[in-house]
Design brief:
The complex is a heterodimer.
Chain A lengths: L1 H10 L4 H21 L1 H8 L4 H23 L2 H25 L1 E3 L2 E6 L6 E3 H19 L7 H19 L4 H17 L4 H24 L6 H12 L9 H12 L23 H34 L3 H25 L17 H24 L1
Antiparallel strand pairs in A: 1-2, 2-3
Helix pairs in contact in A: 2-4, 2-12, 4-14, 5-6, 5-7, 6-7, 6-8, 6-13, 6-14, 7-8, 8-9, 8-13, 11-12, 12-13, 13-14
Chain B lengths: L1 H35 L1 H10 L3 E6 L6 E2 L5 E13 L6 H19 L5 H13 L9 E8 H8 L8 H4 L1 E10 L7 H4 L10 H5 L1 H5 L3 E7 L8 E3 L13 E4 L3 H18 L3 E8 L5 E10 L2 E3 L4 H4 L9 H10 L8 E3 L4 E4 L2 E4 L10 E3 H6 L3 H13 L2 H14 L17 E2 L13 H6 L4 E2 L2 H12 L4 E2 L4 E6 L2 E5 L4 E3 L5 H16 L14 E8 L2 H5 L7 E9 L6 E8 L8 H4 L1 H14 L25 E3 H10 L12 E7 L2 E7 L14 H10 L3 E5 L4 E4 L11 E6 L1
Parallel strand pairs in B: 2-8, 28-30
Antiparallel strand pairs in B: 1-6, 2-3, 3-4, 3-5, 6-7, 8-19, 9-10, 9-24, 10-11, 12-15, 13-14, 16-17, 18-21, 19-20, 22-23, 23-24, 25-26, 26-27, 29-30
Helix pairs in contact in B: 3-4, 10-21, 12-14, 12-18
The chains are: A mainly alpha, B alpha+beta.
């Protein structure tokens, strides 16, 4: 046994705390998804719920393997790959918009030829963009305040990618935009530029809104507006409303929860295994369990902050920080939806929600962060 | 280094301004909802009806006849629906053809297979069908058929993949149709519970269980998933009620009553048959006229108190005998069948009375003289003021005629007996003489029968009852033994005397036409005028009510029976003509069924076998003859060496003679049965064609013809 632990210790380089967070999230994912997909599995497979457990288990295993492989890669490699990844992502996003598969009424998915698997192109785009922005910021540190040579090369790709994602998936686009701004803030981009971005972002949103009114088929404005109206009109909601059901789930959990597999609300929440998995976890493991989950993500942020101070190269710090901002922001937004603080977004809980491509790219992101961590460990 | 620090500060800024506050907000919000406002939100679980307490229906018990035959029982039935949206495209397309075939062939013949297929496809795709997810397949399907339909292609994939929805409910069935319908009764929503079903609802109904359930698919489908970890209370199934009703007697009674109703075009009629020494009701039939036929729609025997008429004279007689006022040999002047009390005229209904004046008390009773009975009662109880009249009423009360019988069913009418001490009861000078002959009082047929039954039972009054026990899963959990209402309603001597009077009614009185030479029975006819008092004042006479109450066999009564037929419109109206024959028919058939009352006819010497019946000249397989004759123990002689044999009868003995058959020659088969003839001919290779049936009387080939595959015609007769 001690041999086995030693072996793992030797194999897994980088911050063991981050590894631990990753594995804990994976376990929570397995428990949560298994519970939450109960009804779905019951209907789709005629009662064979184990199939979903197996599927999620396989995906998680595959994800962890990916993390392991990615953390072995020297992190500067990511910097080198970033431009190619960007070049590949843009046509893929265009393709998705043009002919992607609709799942849950949103055209965010691309079917992989011959494999029959679908993946969300925006997940790939997130990774590519964050790594690319990290590369751009770190390489331009010396003249970072310059508009033309520093700010534009950073912001233009961000705008292109976000612009391509926004029509089908405004939440992800906004998240990515927010992450990019966070990275720019950390990367010492002038505050006036960032401030103007916020203003610009609002203008773009307004513009899209008007455009969507004119071409309702292309842009999901009606969805956004209905979600926002829905959120604003909080008190008139009827009892079957998902936000109400989510609260019932959390309340049903109380302090310590109903115990694994005893969720009732999984039957009534529309996406218990993705959007509302936090509510299900709270129902089964209580507010205490929910708090621990929140703490895990905050802890991740702290651990990566340590990397920033130790990273000898700006790119490593920027990439790790960027990916962490992305994951933690996404997690916060997802959980905020479950506790009815923000309107429904459709963003998953990184590493915990079910869903193949989201999990896979989250795993890669962890791999990249650990790669930086591993390098720092090896140099200090 | 400076840059690094600046970056770090900025990260801390991000952490402190966004990440940590956001995390704290999330945690606060989680606790706010989950702990602080827990009751508010959790309360909504029930409000949203996610968890519902649902009743698990308990199986209703059966109502059984005394031999265990089911009079009313519950069977589970299913309504089958199809959800055309449930199957996947793949499953649907693969199975729709065969499903259409099965449905069109076995379930709904109004569709051809092709039309059914088109129909199924339309249900699934055509929006004009409203995309209903509950298309009825068949209603009221029994379990076996439901199982068969569940095996149909597509449906056999299960409810979620196949889309067949079966909803269970239970239905009350009466295996004997309308037999004793009103007495068995029913429970219906928004209707008063009736009969035994109503009275024993608690016993039959059991206790429903409770189950905490929740939505599984969606509320529209009303599909619930039981939650195993929440406590459920198992339902306790209803117990079975075993009645005293004998379906054979019930059937006889209903049949006889119905025919009388039709023959006399009457308004309503009722029959009750009671076991003398227990009070168990063996049959209770009620038939009423409705616009479109005869129905058992009201329990007249129990719920309808009417003026009984002459059957009540038994009570008057018993009262006078108990008081020792009269003896049967006393005489009474019936004034040629007509007298007056306080200017009110009283007539005998029998035309015979016109020729008579002074007759014995016995005669007055047996010929049912109204004048005689009224005068006797009036003489002994009416001439000493209200006090003596009250004494008469006290006598009636001693016979319990003022009390309901207390039978298990709801809605028993109470008797109405006037009280001279009660100013509200409209007691008058004519009340007593009219009461003597069964007017100015009301009593139900069952209450009247209870009195007759007590007389038949030598004065011991039994409580009529319908339910003998309660059973649970075939085990008796509670029995209801016979109940004695009163050990002795009158002295032995009185009972003996009235019994002889009742026998006399049949022997030579108003019911002499009904007399049977198989057995003796006793009883009293009744022919009551409806609204009699108003009738003689010149108002409308409301017709007659014919009745007969009695018991049989007279010497050792087993059953008592009352028959009441209201408003016969044709074929007579006298109790002896209308109700009496019904009584007689029931008594006949019951008597036939009472094995222990018949002397055995098979005791004594068996008659010797008649010679002419012995089978002479029969031809057949020897071993068959032996088997038959040994089995019938017919003595016989001879044991020929041949396979076939012929029987010969000489005097009274039977001998078996040889009958040789040679191979490859056409045998002589005349006199044989077809089986033996076929056996012999076909063994010789001859094809047999047959005409007629019986024994062979002619054969187309001569015996001894060499057989080489030709055809023989056999004529049978």
């Amino acid at each position: 046994m001690s041999n086995f632990v030693a072996r793992i210790n030797a194999e897994l380089k980088g911050d063991k705390a981050i590894w631990a967070i990753l594995v804990l999230l994976a376990i929570i994912s397995l428990l949560g998804v298994y519970s939450a997909t109960g009804t779905l599995a019951y209907r789709a497979t005629g009662g064979n719920t184990e199939w979903f457990l197996l599927k999620q288990g396989l995906i998680l295993f595959f994800g962890l393997m990916l993390t392991y492989i990615c953390h072995l890669v020297h992190y500067t490699r990511y910097s080198a790959w970033a431009p190619y990844a960007m070049a590949a992502v843009i046509p893929l996003l265009v393709l998705t918009l043009a002919m992607g598969t609709e799942i849950n009424d949103a055209r965010r998915w691309l079917e992989l030829p011959y494999l029959g698997l679908t993946f969300q192109t925006s997940d790939l785009a997130k990774l590519a963009l964050v790594v690319y922005v990290a590369r751009a910021i770190s390489s331009k540190q010396d003249y970072i305040d310059d508009w033309k040579s520093a700010f534009l090369p950073i912001i233009v790709p961000v705008l292109i990618i976000c612009g391509l994602i926004a029509p089908a998936d405004l939440s992800t686009a906004a998240l990515l935009f927010l992450t990019s701004m966070g990275m720019m803030f950390v990367g010492r981009v002038a505050l006036k530029y960032i401030g103007s971005l916020i203003v610009g972002g609002l203008i773009v949103f307004a513009f899209l809104y008007i455009l969507g009114d004119m071409f309702p088929d292309a842009i999901r404005v009606d969805t956004w507006s209905s979600r926002i109206k829905d959120f604003m009109g909080g008190e008139q909601r009827e009892i079957y409303h998902q936000a109400v059901q989510s609260k019932i789930a959390i309340a049903n959990g109380g302090w310590f929860g109903q115990g694994p597999g005893n969720s009732i609300q999984r039957y009534y929440l529309p996406s218990p295994h993705t959007d509302y998995i936090y509510a299900i976890i709270c129902e089964e493991y209580g507010a205490i369990g929910g708090t621990l989950l929140v703490a895990l993500y905050v802890f991740l942020f702290f651990r990566v902050t340590r990397l920033v101070t130790k990273s000898p190269k700006a790119f490593g710090a920027m990439m790790a920080m960027g990916l962490t901002i992305l994951l933690v922001f996404q997690a916060m937004i997802n959980m905020a939806v479950a506790v009815d603080l923000v309107p429904v977004t459709g963003l998953t809980l990184p590493m915990v929600s079910s869903g193949g491509s989201s999990l896979v790219f989250t795993a890669i992101a962890f791999g990249a962060i650990l790669s930086v961590s591993k390098y720092i460990e090896s140099t200090t | 280094m400076e840059i690094k620090n600046e970056v770090l500060y900025r990260v801390y800024f991000l952490l402190g301004l966004f990440v940590v506050p956001a995390a704290l907000t999330l945690v606060y919000r989680t606790f706010q909802i989950g702990v602080i406002q827990q009751d508010k939100w959790k309360g909504m679980i029930r409000e949203a009806k996610h968890i519902q307490e649902r009743e698990i229906e308990a199986e209703r018990g059966s109502i059984m006849a005394n031999d265990g035959s089911l009079l009313a029982t519950s069977v589970p039935i299913f309504d089958l629906f199809f959800d055309p949206q449930a199957p996947s495209d793949e499953d649907f397309n693969e199975h729709v053809d065969s499903l259409a075939y099965c449905l069109a062939t076995y379930v709904d013949n109004s569709f051809t297979v092709g039309a059914m297929r088109d129909h199924l496809i339309k249900l699934r795709t055509d929006s004009t069908y409203n995309k209903s997810r509950n298309v009825p397949i068949k209603r009221k399907v029994l379990y076996a058929e439901k199982q068969r339909i569940e095996e149909f292609p597509l449906f056999n994939l299960g409810q979620f993949r196949g889309g067949l929805i079966a909803r269970k409910r239970s239905e009350r069935r009466r295996p004997f149709g309308l037999l004793a319908r009103r007495t068995i009764g029913y429970i219906r929503e928004e209707a008063k519970p009736i009969g035994l079903e109503g009275k024993f609802d608690q016993v039959l109904g059991g206790e429903p269980g409770k189950e905490l359930t929740m939505f599984l698919v969606d509320p529209k489908h009303d599909l619930w998933k039981p939650q195993n970890n929440l406590t459920a209370i198992e339902p306790r199934n209803g117990d079975d009620v075993v009645t005293t009703i004998d379906i054979n007697i019930q059937d006889i009674a209903e049949d006889a009553l119905l025919r009388a109703m039709e023959r006399h075009d009457a308004e309503w009629g009722t029959v009750v048959v009671m076991e003398v020494n227990t009070g168990a009701i063996k049959a209770i039939a009620n038939i009423g006229r409705e616009s479109d036929g005869w129905y058992e729609s009201y329990n007249y025997a129990i719920g309808n108190a009417t003026e009984p008429g002459s059957t009540f004279k038994l009570a008057s007689m018993m009262a006078m005998l108990e008081d020792g006022y009269i003896s049967l040999e006393d005489s009474v002047d019936i004034e040629h069948g007509k007298t007056t009390f306080y200017d009110e005229e009283l007539e005998d209904s029998s035309p015979l009375s016109a020729t008579m004046d002074t007759i014995s008390v016995r005669q007055a009773f047996e010929m049912s003289s109204n004048v005689g009975m009224a005068k006797l009662v009036n003489e002994h109880y009416g001439n000493k003021g209200l006090e003596s009249a009250a004494h008469f009423i006290d006598r009636l009360r001693e016979f319990n005629l003022n009390l309901p019988t207390g039978i298990e069913l709801d809605g028993e009418a109470s008797p109405f007996i006037k009280d001279p001490n009660d100013k509200d009861s409209q007691w008058s000078g004519t009340t007593l003489p009219w009461m003597a002959i069964g007017y100015e009082l009301q009593i139900t047929p069952l209450q009247m029968l209870t009195l007759y039954n007590a007389v038949a039972n030598n004065g011991r009054e039994m409580k009529p009852y319908l339910v003998s026990s309660i059973q649970r899963y075939g085990e008796t959990v509670r029995t209801f033994p016979p109940t004695v209402i009163k050990r002795r309603i009158a002295s032995k001597e009185t009972i003996r005397q009235v019994k002889s009077l009742l026998e006399g009614v049949v022997e030579r009185g108003t019911a002499y036409k009904l007399k049977s030479d198989q057995y003796n029975f006793a009883g009293k006819t009744g022919t009551a005028q409806i609204n009699y008092r108003r009738g003689i004042r010149g108002n409308l006479v409301g017709g007659y009510q014919a009745s007969f109450a009695g018991y049989f066999p007279a010497e050792n009564p087993v059953y008592s029976c009352v028959v009441v037929i209201n408003k016969p419109r044709q074929g007579g109206y006298y109790g002896g003509d209308v109700a009496g024959p019904v009584f007689r028919e029931i008594a006949d058939q019951c008597f036939d069924a009472l094995m222990e009352l018949h002397p055995a006819i098979n005791v004594g010497k068996k008659p010797p076998m008649a010679g002419w019946r012995l089978p002479n000249g029969s031809i057949g397989l020897k071993s068959d003859f032996f088997t038959i004759m040994k089995d019938l123990r017919i003595p016989f002689s001879g044991n020929p060496g041949t396979e076939m044999a012929v029987l010969q009868v000489a005097a009274d003995t039977l001998s078996v003679q040889p009958r040789s058959v040679q191979a490859n020659l056409m045998p002589n088969v005349v006199g044989m049965g077809l089986r033996d003839a076929l056996y012999l001919c076909e063994n010789s290779g001859i094809t047999v064609k047959v005409n007629g049936f019986g024994k062979v009387i002619r054969q187309s080939l001569l015996p001894g013809t060499r057989a080489n595959g030709q055809t023989v015609w056999l004529q049978l007769e």
